[in-house]
Amino acid sequence: MCTTAVAALSLTACDDQGEGKARDERDTAVAYVKAINDRDVPALVKLSPPGNEGAEQAARELVGSQGGRGLRVDDVRVGHEFGPDTADARLRATDKEGRPFSETLTLTRRGGTWYVALGTAPGSTPKSPAQTSRP
Fold first, then answer.
1. What is the strand order of the sheet 72-79 is part of?
2. pLDDT in tens, 8-30
3. Which of 14, 32, 96, 108 measures 20 to 30 Å from 70, CA to CA?
4. Closest to 104 (Cα-Cα) out of 94, 89, 114
5. Taking the model in full, what pTM does it have?
6. Left, alpha or beta for 85 (phi > 0: left; psi -120 to 50: alpha)?
7. Would you say residue 105 has pLDDT above 70?
8. Burial group, residue 22, by CB count within 10 angstroms (0-12, 13-18, 19+)
9. Element (H, E) at 7
10. Could you give the angle at which helices 55-66 and 25-37 cross, rounded to 10 degrees?
11. What mean pLDDT, rounded, does the chain reach?
12. Torsion of CA 104, 50, 1, 71, to 10 degrees
């Protein structure tokens, strides 16, 4: 697994990037945290792949549960276990109260731009939880 670490990223160094502008994995993860801090649902929706169903609802839920915490990104580690167009970004941050925050984001690349997997791809079938039973 190829892993890259970027320490002490500053949220102020990342300007909002609109649709159609290339973002790398780290920029996308930092933009995600900035949108949550700002309680900016439209910015979160723009970070999801175009056309994903339920992205706005997922963004609203994230803002409701995590928004406004004043997160400062301490570290982003990016891995590419499933190929060059899928990544996981492991975020470590600290909130304004000094409490640690961590989250792993699933990212996908389309047309050179990385997106956070919010909602579901159009036409995809929801997956049911794995079941275990004895024969």
1. 3-7, 72-79, 86-94, 100-110, 113-116
2. 232 323 333 444 456 899 999 99
3. 108
4. 89
5. 0.74
6. alpha
7. yes
8. exposed
9. strand 3-7
10. 60
11. 80
12. -30
